[in-house]
Design brief:
The protein has about 325 residues and is an alpha+beta fold. Strands 10, 11, 12, 13, 14 and 15 form a six-stranded antiparallel β-sheet that branches. The protein has a five-stranded mixed β-sheet with strand order 4-3-2-1-5. α6 crosses α7. The model has no long low-confidence stretch (mean pLDDT about 95).
Length: about 325
Amino acid sequence: MNIVVGVLRGGPSHEYETSLATGNVLLSHLLPERYTPRDIFIDKTGVWHVAGRPVSPVRVLEMVDVVLVGLHGEYGEDGEVQKILERHGVPYSGSNSFASFLAMHKVFAKKYAGENKIHTPRYVLIESPDDIADSIMTAVRAFIPPVVVKPVRWGSSVGVSLSTGYPQVHEAAVALFDEGAQNVLLEEYVRGREASVGVIENFRGEELYTLPVAEIIATRNEEFLSSDVKKNDEGIKISCPATFSKSQKEELLQSAMAMHRSLGLRHYSRSDFIVTPHSIHYIETHSLPELAEKSIFPAMLEAVGEPSPNFTEHLINLALSKD
């Protein structure tokens, strides 16, 4: 009898389109002789749909044996949808609700990095719009400009900007609060090369298998790889394996594994770093890396000769094992 696999895609987040793409890829990997797919589309208001009709999560989840979570950003990657799946006792891919929340919260993730003696850029946290002015003064005095302005709990560089001077930083911070960000981070800008490392559990005979280090390179002269640049297929190129030194690669691999473990993540993750000639700085960890074509994680899989459909099957097996 076929395994019924529900694929969650879409969702009420700033990464709606990216999630649709990941979900479509996961659905395409489900071989009909082994799996019966259930396309579970979640619209931008959070309503679940099957076959074009609205349906309650409890009814959908009664129809499946396992769920592949193809969501990104808020709701899908911050632990909210995981809470729903856990309440209904359905096996699912990716990290549990608490670990997802920790990884998505950039300040908490920084603290875990610090506990592992992994460098991170310095930062100032703005917890309320009322604190913007004082926080900016602290940041512009402490950091060499420009300043990175980012939401604490959005992913994939969404809402992240590079700003110079008080007025520009203030405008960026206000805009993020207006767009619904709960907290805003003012972060030291570290000039360097952008690196990423994928981690997979129980893969190729290893408890934690690290994929080759990838470098994300701007194809134009952008000083900063914003979300818009990264989403443009012509805006970046992915070099994997990357051309960092042997010692840099080893530090990146060890740091990615340390973050996966310390955040309590499950099944797979991807951590991002900035590499300078003298240091490596941790930026963030994705508990549900993008799996759409031309994204970073599939490029890492390709570099080790692992077809993406095989990886999808591995995720299903991990979810069903309930380890």
